[in-house]
Amino acid sequence: MSLQVLPKPSSGDEAPRPSNETRRAQAVVKTGLIDAPNSDLFQIYCDLAKDLTGFEQARFSLFDGEAQCSMAGAGVPESYEVGGRTERSKWNVCSYVLLNTEPMVIEDFYKDPDWSEHPFIKSGDAPHAYAGFPVVNKDNYALGTLCLFNTEPKKMSSDQENLLVRISKNIAHLLDLQVEQRSLTSQKIVQATDVLSEELPGATLLDLKALLLLESDLKVSARDANGLVKHGFCTEDVKSNAILSSTGRLLIEKMGITPKPMKRLKISGDDASELIDKMFSELQ
Fold first, then answer.
1. What is the pTM of this model?
2. Could you tell me the sign of the dihedral formed by the alpha carbons of 245, 250, 255, 258, in that order?
């Protein structure tokens, strides 16, 4: 395996950007994880990276146009914050990992004279050993990095490097799936809205929201589903909750929001309600 060598720090104040930076940053935003990070998706990869290499810390980050955005970490200090943002300055070493598709492994960071002016090296707070693996998606954009840190100098075997490359590829695949799922969900919402408008002229987003909630087996009051009750798509039970009628279930099937695609989200209860609320806030 070929490795990156530690490049010289930038002559300017900012770390250098990849040549495809605009499209790369757009691809990061499309994951939806910058504003809503989900560490549960990536925690296992950080744990594996740490355990397989013996490094003290492993961190996965995404990089939008302005900052390094923390997604998950193992062995990290209490001050580590999922969703935290770090400036992509000339001293942000992980930013340099984005410039190449090969990993950058450094046995002892302090022995590189080009980086002797790094503030953390001057203060003695920088880790000695560092390994950065670019997370490259199917379109060949380096969306983020899986980086490892150790306070003492440390070597990484070629087998360990190969395993970390495979882990990075798994993270990239998960990011691609995240984008595809978001696109699929958006398309289904648009298609469902079109069908509902044909079947129920004057239908509102609240009517669509009520149908999605009911299909997810969540309670909706008859008052909040008044339009659906009025047109026979729902009935009202003794507790004043809306219940889908046979006509309503046929409407849902025609709209393409039947249980099969909805269950692919693997959420229920309050999580489902929160997701639906978020989707509708974006539509509005």
1. 0.69
2. positive
